Amino acid sequence: MQSLISKQSNKKKHPNTPNPNNSYFLFVIAIIAAAFILFVFYSRQTDPRHICSTVGPLTPAQTIIAEEFATSSIPLVTIFHYATARDVPQQTKNEIRRPFDVLQSLGPCNFLVFGIGHDALMWDAFNPRGITLFLEEDPKWTISSLRRFPILRAYTVRYNTRLLEATTLLSSYKKNCGAVGGDDHPLKDDRRCRLALGEFPNEVYDRDWDVIMIDAPRGYIPAAPGRMAVIYSAAVMARGRKKAGVTHVFLHDVDRAVEKLYAKEFLCMKYRVGGVKKLWHFVIPPANNVTDTAHGFC
After folding, report:
1. How far apart are CA 47 and CA 54, in angstroms?
2. In this predicted model, what pLDDT tens digit does every residue of 153-211 receive, in sequence order?
């Protein structure tokens, strides 16, 4: 294939010699156009507000809820929302109760949530006066959620894995992951390890997270990102904790093979303290050497 490409590249598409002035003009136009395209592309990847125009208008009921945040207390608005909304949280009552109890015992705390679901406002309300941060893969859904619930803290993030790669990534992580030098966060800027979420907003790395909820990204079709990198990175965050205490990690959808396999490899069954239906609860202590993965995590 390489030889074929090289042969094609040597063919002259324009055998006639062009006018030098026209060539220079076209070159300048091409550079300007390329710069504009790159600017639009990267700005949309890093700031979901650039795609507001692609998100549909709020319904009258959603508009009322969004406006209430400016004048009413958050708990009352949350109750109002769930009392009138047709969409309900994805997790069951018993699954919700376990992280609720942990958040109440720790609060206010630092709570990191992977995914913005219909339960986002609920999770935020469970951690009053604490820091609750949502990381979502779908920029349209992020901006839609922020318009409906302007009090939420959220970022759109990207994943470079696919569910169909789960087995390969698991078998190669000991060779490619860990050993990040310097005083930086063990995940930040790690481009060698594909399971390391190293290009997230700095706010993700600047805090020790007391509670981590893993309910995203999508992991139900081969082309979806899968939760491999999130599970690995949550384990690294917990191992690298600097302040006193432990990290509570909740993993949803453990009825699926990949979630269960990666949980056993990185979150460790010895740290599992319970679970309800499709939700597992881990309590992970910090490690002495967070970058030592030669012998695995568990």
Report:
1. 14
2. 999 999 999 999 999 999 989 888 875 555 578 899 888 999 999 999 999 999 999 99
Dihedral sign, CA of 205, 156, 123, 161?
Answer: negative
What is the number of residues in the chain? 298
Q: In sequence order, what DSSP letters do the residues of 178-194 get, joined into one string? A: ----TTS-SSTT--S-T
- What does the DSSP 8-state code read for residue 98? H
* Residue pair 177/296 in contact by the 8 Å Cβ criterion: no
Contact by Cβ (8 Å): 257, 264 = no
Summarised one tens digit per residue, pLDDT across range 277-291 is: 999 999 999 987 776
Local structure of residue 200 (DSSP, 8 states): S
Candidates 290, 280, 166; CA nearest to 239 is 290
Find out whether 256 and 73 touch, Cβ atoms under 8 Å: no
Separation between Cα atoms, residue 51 and residue 34, nearest integer Å: 20
* Sequence-distant (≥ 6) Cβ neighbours of residue 167 within 8 angstroms: none
Of residues 90, 94, 88, 89, the one with CA closest to residue 281: 94
Residue 285 contacts residue 246 (beta carbons within 8 Å): yes
Q: What residues pair up with 285 in beta bridges, in sequence order?
A: none
